[in-house]
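Quick one, probably user error.
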């Protein structure tokens, strides 16, 4: 008799607030810390997330993600594993700038890149297809190592968008309606049918 295929659940959560978030500056792969408000958020989220039967946390190795995970894990007390493949998109020369500044300085280039959808790639940075590829590999690796578990994934907006938009068949174009609400938990499931979305914006974490 064959063993049943392990069903693995992933809860996707963006890291808590940083000062750069407050200033609307693009962080990319810069190692920014949480702000005092972000520290408060993450501690609160830990208490909220205790209602789920988590087995482990899988987290980007960026400082803001690791700090978020550590504060959440003060409440959950479960194994925590880092994966560099869950880092935010590299924004190259635009890292540290606000979107409004980029619109002022490079309006034509920004408009052209936004129309590129999945091929959007900031100057000297990384395209979205590369982010999707490494993010999917991180999820696949987790399924191989910890199949059947319920895993909290703490990552970045770009990573979470790439995963959800891909599974939704999005083209990543500006005219598409907004899909993700901030500070919410999104659920993926992996079973014999592969990876798919279980629910989005499922649990507002204020």
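Nope, works fine. Designed sequence:
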């Amino acid at each position: 008799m064959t063993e049943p295929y392990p069903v693995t659940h992933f809860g996707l959560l963006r890291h808590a607030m940083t000062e750069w978030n407050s200033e609307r500056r693009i962080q990319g792969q810069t190692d920014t810390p949480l702000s005092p408000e972000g520290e408060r958020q993450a501690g609160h989220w830990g208490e909220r997330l205790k209602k789920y039967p988590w087995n482990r946390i899988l987290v980007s190795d960026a400082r803001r993600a690791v700090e978020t995970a550590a504060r959440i894990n003060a409440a959950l007390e479960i194994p925590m594993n880092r994966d560099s493949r869950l880092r935010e998109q590299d924004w190259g020369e635009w890292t540290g700038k606000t979107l409004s500044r980029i619109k002022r300085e490079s309006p034509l280039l920004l408009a052209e890149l936004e129309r590129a959808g999945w091929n959007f790639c900031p100057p000297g940075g990384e395209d979205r297809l590369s982010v999707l590829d490494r993010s999917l590999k991180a999820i696949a690796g987790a399924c191989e190592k910890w199949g059947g578990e319920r895993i909290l994934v703490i990552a970045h907006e770009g990573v979470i968008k790439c995963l959800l938009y891909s599974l939704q068949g999005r083209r990543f174009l500006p005219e598409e309606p907004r899909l993700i609400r901030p500070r919410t938990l999104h659920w993926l499931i992996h079973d014999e049918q592969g990876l798919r979305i279980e629910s989005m914006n499922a649990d507002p974490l204020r």
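The chain has a mean pLDDT of 96.
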